[in-house]
């Protein structure tokens, strides 16, 4: 029963903190409308992994924003990729070691 008070406090405090933070952020930061916006990223998947909520908010049709994403990457990897398995003669599909029966 010693865990009941901390869990109850978290159930009350966390939603309250979220509501307060959301109201402060929406009041202090103006909405970007009818702007040309360029999001500069370093890796091809950064916009999906880190900036998806921002990109989704900026590209809503009612905002009228024109958003472009610019990726500056050399395309090189630090670690080599494992070799790809051989393809069949048509260039599609992977070769199997045992024939299909």
Count of DSSP H/I helices: 3
Q: How far apart, in Å, are the first and last alpha carbons?
A: 62 Å
Form type: flat
Q: What percent of the residues sit in helical stretches (DSSP H or I)?
A: 25-40%
Largest β-sheet summary: 2 strands, parallel
Strand order of the largest sheet: 1-2
Question: Which stretches are poorly predicted, pLDDT < 50 over at least 5 residues?
Answer: none
Helix-and-strand structural type: alpha+beta
Total number of strands? 2
Mean pLDDT: 80
Query: What does the radius of gyration come to?
Result: 24 Å
Beta-strand fraction estimate: 5-15%
What is the succession of H and E elements?
HEHHE
Structural account:
This protein is 36% helix and 12% strand. The protein has a domain at 33-74. It contains three helices and two strands, in the order αβααβ. The protein has helices at 4-28, 46-49, 52-58; strands at residues 36-41, 66-71. The protein is flat. 0% of the residues are buried. The protein has a two-stranded parallel ribbon with strand order 1-2. The model has no long low-confidence stretch (mean pLDDT 80). By secondary structure, the chain is an alpha+beta fold.
